[in-house]
Write the structure tokens for this entry.
Amino acid sequence: MDYKVLIVDDDKLLIKSLHVTLGEEFDLIEASSGKEAVELVRSRDDIACVVMDIKMPGMDGIQATRAIRVINAELPVILFTAYAGEYSEAEFNSYGFVGKDEDPRRLLDTVRKAYNYYVTISDPERLSELAEEQWGLVGKTDCMLSIYRQLYTFGSTDECVLIIGERGTEIEFAAAALHKASERSDKPFVIMDCSSIVRERFQVDLFGQVVNSTDSSHQTLPGKLDAADGGTLFIDEIDSLAPDNQGALLRVIRSGEYTPVGLHEPKRCDVRFVFATRRDLGALVRMGKFREDLWGFFERYVIELPPLRNRKEDIPLLVDKFVQDFSAKYVERDFDKPAVELLTLHNWRGNLSELRTFVRAICFQSHSTMIMSHDVKLALGYISKESAEAVKNHSERLALGQMLDEYERFLIREALYETAGNVNAAADILWLDPSNLRKKIKKYGIERGKFDTGEEV
């Protein structure tokens, strides 16, 4: 599709000026009022960016921008005005505004960014390629495309962002992608894990600390804010932060200043904060366990990573990527199609991390270049070693009874995975008496440690 830039102004001379500034690089269409601009956006799907005057008769630029957001929330609107000082930043979208008295090159640069942003997020293939090539993220499902759009959008701001995900969704990769998508990408990306820091050490680790102090001089041990200066500080497990440390962090976010432990003079910091949690922070706020004012800084900028069970169509792509990485570093390996289908059907309760670890482990353990379905079944515990060898060597046929046993073993394991090892719940799924299921678990030697459960099986 050949995308256009919509220019909106009731001043014909200004429209001509915009043609001079933008016309060589973009196809332009015009509107002379806010109402006309809204109707064009409503009726066309080839507009990638809007450059809008604010003061116009009838529907002004602010009203038109709000109406356009209702029609297409992703479409960037750049407000181009001589009256910028009369409006607050809150009335502008993420691409802000450009003054009519500014250097025309700033308008051209802003339009380029907005245009490229919209063209990229509107093309799933282009967006998924960008995510893999620039951010190292793999996936083409709708839920992942939505994540990529958020990363692209939030990357253009300096707002605090919260990333939510289950264990194993590899939140740190998404945080790193957000950093790479930002204008801070050439600056440090620093990780701080709250769950591994004792309460008394948090402010020392964050702010730094004075050491070797004398009356005339002192030496400061740098903290994470020093290390991340100019870049991004990713604070993981924010939900485990004690209330007093939440308050200390909040003061830094609000003021952009912090004081190393042992000093009295504050220091300035230029850091973009990205937070992560695997818990419901909104619920913790309601329970009084997390500060509402801190939650307010990122509640509008939340990225929720999908578990692997919600993006199974991506598993073949992920397996291919993991195998390529392994082959490039160690020795060539590959999976046949039935093996990949088995991996796709499997319930990866540990999400991406479990799948990545499994692929790496089976590639290391295999003595063959091609990993077959029976190798995967054995590694996942679906069949016994003896059955796998029989299939692999074609030296004997499995008796019907043995084949049924293997299938029953597979179904039991799947039910236990589905219910996190809860035998009673698994028995309901399998239409078995719980005591009968326990006997079968013992018969097939299914290990209790394979499941996250506190129940005796």
User: Anything to note?
Assistant: The two ends are 59 Å apart (CA to CA). The chain has three domains: 4-121, 136-306, 310-450. The first helix runs from residue 12 to 22. Residues 136-306 form a domain with the Rossmann fold fold (CATH 3.40.50.300).
